[in-house]
Amino acid sequence: MLLPKNGLFGLFLLLVISTLIIIYQIQILKLQEKIYSLETNQKDYSALVTRQISEEDDIVVIYNRVPKTASTSFVGVAYDICKKNHFHVLHVNVSANSHVLSLNNQLELARNITFWNVMKPALYHGHFAYFDFSKFHVPKPYFINIIRRPLDRFISYYYFVRYGDNYRPYLIRKKHGNTSFDECVAKKLPECDPNNLWLQVPFFCGHAANCRKPGNKWALAEAKKNIVAHYLLVGVTEELQDFISILELTVPRLFRGALEHYLNSNKSHLRKTVQKDVPSEETVKKIKESPVWQMENELYEFVLEYFHFVKKHTLKDRSQKVFYEKIRPKYV
Question: What is the pLDDT of residue 176?
Fold first, then answer.
């Protein structure tokens, strides 16, 4: 039976429409599969990030390291033992070597560190000033740090930016030159201006505007307050071994075996400035006349005394026990 031309065209049109509908349905199915796959992956990722972890592993230590205080040596130990002790070490790198974090980056960093459970337990380290996690309504981590005699740190940095160190001996520094620290002070060059000593106080003071003002008395007081109230431990470069010992006793989940590794590996003096001249008495006298040096030194002496107090009651009296008694009401 022959169909009229109009009938053939209608049949052809019907076949085309049916084919298009089938292709459309196939595309819809593929799209649904992709959406399902993305949702599944998102759920898996969310579960991974927010996974429940044990109380023992729910540990975050932040080391907002002051430059030229033996921080590389200490971090080197952490990197060496992290695999054995099953924790993560992460470097927080701030662009342009800034020690000040923007407000939005403080918030983001606080939230990331707090809720990034897949990375816990963890030690985060970087050159940035202290900031208060409770300000962003998240739990506080353990803050730690190391401080150094201010003039020693200043001189070490002065020669470091010129001659480098044995960590990367072939790197040519941008300020490479032969001007000694004595000559720099005598000529009153900007690089050895005593105001440049103002570094350790701001690191502990935080992100208030006054923290950045050299010689600000409020900043010094705030730095002292933060050290006592918000830091688990602040050690001194000159007694790094004791600093590691206290951390191992206090936070063994991360630092178990750290002291032995520090003493028996090459990490105890990982970074030494290639050339560093001893300053003259006249140079030292000039620097110590500066109010900025005096305040930085006051902070160092404060930390040293506090560290010795902590050391006395942690390392020298290990027989101390804490227990509970007279618990009421009694349960049979």
Answer: 59
pTM: 0.80
| Alpha carbon distance 7, 194 (integer Å) | 98
Catalytic residue status for 125: yes
For residues 163 and 275, the answer to whether their CB atoms sit within 8 Å is: yes
Look up 261 and say whether it is catalytic: no
Six-digit token string for 72: 């590389």
Instruction: Identify the CA nearest to 87 among candidates 56, 45, 110, 133.
Output: 56
Of the listed 91, 99, 127, 269, which one is catalytic? 127
Confidence band, pLDDT 50/70/90 cuts, at residue 332: low
125: β partners: 63, 91
Evaluate whether 65 touches 145 at the Cβ level (below 8 Å): yes
Query: Of the residues 125, 207, 230, 261, which is catalytic?
Result: 125
> String of b and e for 146-163 (b: at least 16 CB within 10 Å)?
bbbbbbbbbbbbbbbbbb
DSSP secondary structure string, 247-303? HHHH-HHHHTTHHHHHHHSTTTT---BS--PPPPHHHHHHHHTSHHHHHHHHHHHHH
